Amino acid sequence: MRTSVARVLTGAAGLTLMGVGASLLWEVPDLTGVLVWLGGAVVLHDALIAPSVLLIGLVLVRGGARGPVRGALLVAGALTVVALPVLLRPGKPANSSVLPLDYPRNWLLTLAAVATVTALVLAARGIRRGRRRPRS
After folding, report:
1. What is the value of pTM for the model shown?
2. Same domain? 48 vs 71
3. Is residue 6 part of a domain?
4. Based on the domain organization, do 59 and 78 belong to the same domain?
5. Any stretches that span the bilayer, and where are they (predicted)?
């Protein structure tokens, strides 16, 4: 019974937020720009993101490195979502104290750090598996 109550409350919250979003959408002065942006997001998802995720998933299933790579992809995706507004709006802001750091460089460095840690975890797993196997 708890699950059904939680589902109803979650559904009600979702419908409320959709209503707020729809009401805010009608107040936008350039509705066509928003619709073009949303259409572009759908095309980008269907043409690039979804096939990439499916291809990576296929490689992971055959490669045997699912856990660490999935974790790294999750972290990289979250970092990208957080950095995306800054990455899509290049150039110096009017107020230099708003974004004092080089976000694109730091985003790439952070992704490189995630990839490095993932490679180290996979290497450690490989070494550990190599030690467990009895030599014949």
Report:
1. 0.56
2. no
3. no
4. no
5. 35-61, 68-87, 107-127
